[in-house]
Amino acid sequence: MPEAAASLPLFPLHAVLVPGAALDLRIFERRYLDMVRDCGRAGGGFGVCLILDGDEAGTPATPAAFGTEALIEDFDTTLDGLLSLRVRGRRRFHVLRTRVRDTGLVVADVAWREDDPGASPRLRPEHALLAELLRRMLEQAGGADPAPPLFEDAAWVGWRLAELLPLSMPQRQALLQLDDPHVRLQQLLDGIAEND
Which residue spans adopt a coiled-coil conformation according to this UniProt entry (predicted)? Predict the structure, then answer.
């Protein structure tokens, strides 16, 4: 269900960030360096949207209508002097309108999207196979996730699979736009069945 609108600077990428997922970025354009500085001062995040038309650098790209708020977890400077960021996806949003600042930064008025409150967060029996698949994927990956696993939570399982499975960007974007975590899981299950 949509929440109140807010203003959010956008960082259009040829990538889809889902809630809870981590993403490493290298920042070199002045508009994004200023954006990161402003986010640090305000203690807020910025929006990551899939690019529908254009490139990541240069002229402002056309972003998808749905994206995810990115919060900065860590930053450093690379050997070549660029700013590197580690961000994590937080809340999903729907872009209501955009404007381009004179610096080339795209700023959007967004409505926050939450998972459908009418949908139980508990994993349904027909999706238990997906939780088991995720458990095995995480065991093979070995790395420590900052959050404890929630294999009974439909939204958590869906987002982790959307992050880890080898999906195309349009497939990942389609999952991001769904409000019902059970519908998201069913689409993942159907996609896995089609690939068998």
Answer: none
**pLDDT tens track for 96-130:** 999 999 888 999 999 999 877 666 789 999 999 99
Where is 181: in which H helix or E strand? Answer: helix 181-195
Task: Indicate if 100 and 185 belong to the same structural domain.
Answer: no
d(C-alpha 184, C-alpha 49), whole Å: 19
Long-range contacts of 136-140 (CB under 8 A, 24+ apart): 137/164
What is the DSSP code (8-state) at residue 126?
A: G
Q: Is 105 helix (H, G, I), strand (E, B) or coil?
A: coil
Averaged pLDDT, 27-54:
90
The span from the CA of 83 to the CA of 76, in Å, is 6
Domain membership of residue 120 (yes or no) is no
Cα radius of gyration rounded to whole Å, the chain: 17
Give me the CATH number covering residue 177.
1.20.58
Q: What's the structural domain count of the chain? A: 2
Residue type, 139: E
Q: What is the pTM of this model?
A: 0.87
Domain with 160, as residue range(s), is 125-195
| pLDDT value, residue 3 | 52
For residues 108 and 36, membership in a common domain is answered with yes
Of the candidates 113, 133, 149, which is a domain's last residue? 113
Q: Which residues pair with 47 in a beta bridge?
A: 10, 69
- Residue 119 domain-assigned (yes or no): no
